[in-house]
Amino acid sequence: xxxxxxxLKMEESEFMFRPDFxxxxxxxxxxxxxxxxxxxxxxxxxxxxxxxxxxxxPLETNEVIARESIYCVFWMDPFDKVIEIxxxxxxxxxxxxxxxFINIAIGALRGLLVKNLKGTELAGSVMPxxxxxxxxxxxxxxxx
Length: 144
Hints:
It contains 3 helices and 7 strands, in the order E-E-E-E-H-E-E-H-H-E. By secondary structure, the protein is an alpha+beta fold. The strands form 2 sheets. Strands 1-4-3-2 form a 4-stranded antiparallel beta sheet. Strands 5-6-7 form a 3-stranded mixed beta sheet.
């Protein structure tokens, strides 16, 4: 199937950094990166919106010391061949296309974190690679 898609919008929706945190008490290379994402479809516009958030926490606690969020909107055609609305969500016949959208958002989050954490105690902290099979298991249903 020939699928066309386009990134219509990409914007930083939130950045938070806790300058009052005692960064001397942690190793910046041994922090947790916790991810969450939400996808919504708008069939009438042939669009999928993706909001992705990453929170940085010390290993010992769940205290959020930094947070970054990005909002992306993708257009695709033929939408109805790729996305099928089911119950409260959707299924896809093209999971690799959805993987592409998620990878675009993750890449943008990485860049925003590098830019926004520059000059802070977390500068140079490395966001781990996330296997797509983990993300797919948690959110993307494949059409049967």
